Amino acid sequence: MSSALKQQIQDAMKTAMKAGDKDRLATIRLMLSALKQVEVDERIELDDSRVITILDKMLKQRRESISQYESAGRNDLADKEKYEVDVIQTFLPQALSDEEIETIIHAAISETGASSIREMGKVMGVVKPQIVGRADMGEVSGKIKALLNAG
Question: Is the pLDDT confidence value at 140 over 80?
């Protein structure tokens, strides 16, 4: 099963080439390179969910870089990373709202019967497939911890 999302990214690369949009083209090439690397390393053809996981990882790396660059006073580099985040996000599913995230977390807690922080792994196992690429996993993890500690 091939990835429609990967095809969409390849089409966007052609569009960026024709438009002469060098910055967007460079970011899209980075994305395709990351996807190709996984395909070669694992000898697989990616499906959409795996493409989303890889793009989500790229977003996380860029967010970490942004905070490091900003704390080092390198706003030029931070701005470049922010641009890459914006481009990558255009290919990911619509972000979940806080209310939607809360609903998914509460449903996962009741589904797993989790009542303490020790059962966080169970809850994350149910939540993660529903939100990957659509929310910051670090923030979601924090919300789950807060709810399980309060419970």
Answer: yes
Chain-centre distance for alpha carbon 72: 25
Of 1-5, 86-90, 94-98, 104-108, least confident by mean pLDDT is 1-5
How far apart (Å, rounded) are the C-alpha atoms in residues 6 and 22?
A: 20
Cβ(148)–Cβ(113) below 8 Å: no
Integer Cα distance of 57 and 16 in angstroms: 23
**Distance (Å) of CA 119 to CA 41, 127, 129, 140, 149:** 33, 13, 17, 15, 11
pLDDT of the residue at 34: 97
Q: Give me 22's structure tokens.
A: 């060098």
pTM: 0.78
N- to C-terminal Cα distance for the chain?
42
Q: Provide the Cα torsion 123, 127, 128, 134; round to 10°.
A: -150
Domains by residue range for the chain, with CATH? 4-89 (1.10.1510.10), 98-150 (1.10.10.410)
Q: Looking at residue 132, what is its pLDDT?
A: 81
Contacts 24+ apart (CB under 8 A), 121-129: 123/148, 129/49
